[in-house]
Amino acid sequence: MNRLSHLKKTLKRNILDNYLPSEVEFVLLDYNSSDGLSEWVESNMSDFIGKGILSYYHTLEPKAFNRGHSRNMVMRLANGDIVCNLDADNYLGKGFALHILTHFKTQENECFYTSDYSFSDAIGRVCVRKSMFMNVKGYNELLSGYGFEDLEFYNTLRKNGLRQIYISNKSYFRAIRHSHRKRIESESLYINHDSVYISYVNPSFSHYLILNKDNTAIIGGIINNSYNIDYTTIEEELDINDRCMSSRFRCILTDHSSGVVLWENPNAAKVILSDSAINLQRHKNNNLRIGNEIYYSLKGKVNTAYFFKVLSEALNYMTVQKHLASEEIRNKDGFGKGIVYKNFNYKEELNIE
User: Fold this and answer.
1) Is the whole model's pTM more than 0.85, yes or no?
2) Which H/E stretch holds residue 129?
C-alpha cells in the first residue's frame, strides 16, 4: 500500500535479474494504494503482464494497511509450488530465484529459507512451499501493524516441523533505506491518531496517551527490557530465534487500553475505559495531566513515527503471547480473504474465500 516510490526502483530490476521462463512468476498486489500505483503499472509494466511474467492484482477494500492479510492474499494468488514474500523496498539480487529453486530441489526434508536476520529491512524475506504455507494458515492476521508478524510466522513453521535455513549472501538482501514514517503511515494506528503524549517514568519505562481523531483515546505503558542488557556477555546464551521470541530482548506493554474521551470543558476531560475512568486535564505548554503525572506532547513527525513503530511491534508481540496462551487456532475464520481484480479487468471479480 502506497509504496510506488520503491516499486519504481525495484520491480523491473527484480524481474530482469530473476525471471526464468516457466519457473518464476512475479505477483504484485495493489492493496488499495492511493499513490498512483495502478496507473504506473499499466503504463510501465504492461509488457511483462502480457507475457505472463507479472500478474497484477488490485483490491479496493482495505482502508488501512494490514501486513498479515496483504501477504496472505498475495501468497494465495501465486501459482508456484514455492512462494517467496518480497517487500516493495527489497532487491532480490541477481540469481536469487535460481538459488532458491536449486536448494529446494536438494532438500529431502521440509524446510524454509530466510535471511540470517543481519539485514534489518529484509527480515521479512521468506521462501516456503505453498502447501506448507496453506497448512499453517499463513501469517497471523491478528497482527495488523508493523513488526513481529514475520518472526511469528517463522516460529509457527518451526513448530510444525520445518527446518529454517539461513541465507547470508548480502547481495540478495539489499533494500532501499527509508524513514520509520514510511513503514507505518498507511496503518490504522497512525492514520487515526491526532496527538501523542509521553510520561517519562525512568530510562526504560514510559506511559503513553494517544488522542485519536474520532475522540477516542489509547493509554498504556511500555518497557524497554533490553535497556540494561549487556549484549557482549549474552550472545551465546540463546540462539537468534529464542532471542526474537523472548520478552527479555524487546519492548513490551504493561497495559494498552482504549476508551472514549468526554470533554467536560476546554481544559478537562474524562476518559472512559472498559474497566475504569481517568481524569484528564490540560497543562501548560500544550501538555496534559493525569493525576500528578505530566504527559508531554510528542513533537515532530520523526519522533511520532518512531513511537508508533515501537508501539506497533510491542502490541503485536503482546497479541502473540495472548494468542499462544489461549491455544486458539490461528486464523480460525480464514486468511487472505477478499475481492481482487486481475490485470486491470475490473469487470470480473475474483473472490478469495
Assistant:
1) yes
2) strand 126-129
